[in-house]
Amino acid sequence: MKTLIRKCVNCGKYTMKDKCPECGSETRNTDPLKYSPSDKFQKFRIKEKEDENNGENSS
Ligand SMILES: [Zn+2]
User: Fold this and answer.
1) Residues whose beta carbons lie less than 5 angstroms from ion ligand 1
2) Chain centroid offset of residue 16 CA
3) Are residues 30 and 13 in contact, defined by beta-carbon separation less than 8 angstroms?
4) Ligand 1: distance of its center to the CA of 17 in Å?
5) What pTM does this model have?
6) Which end of the chain, N or C, is less surrounded by CB atoms within 10 Å?
7) What is the pLDDT of residues 13-57, one digit of tens each?
8) What distance in angstroms lies between residue 48's CA and the mean position of ligand 1's atoms?
9) Which CATH architecture has domain 6-58?
């Protein structure tokens, strides 16, 4: 199910409209799929690997 919750870029208020009812600023889609946790973990894993390699090289 797709929700149409948007968030004001200025005051951070959640709304379903293109413009914030509070301050009239632009709102953006808040699609949780864009911030997938798997991506985050993958980034962390890559960083960990890099850190590991750096440590090996320096010692
Ligand atoms: Zn606003």
Assistant:
1) 8, 10-11, 13, 20, 22-23, 25
2) 19
3) no
4) 11
5) 0.48
6) N
7) 999 999 999 999 999 988 665 555 566 666 767 777 777 777 666
8) 38
9) Single Sheet (2.20)
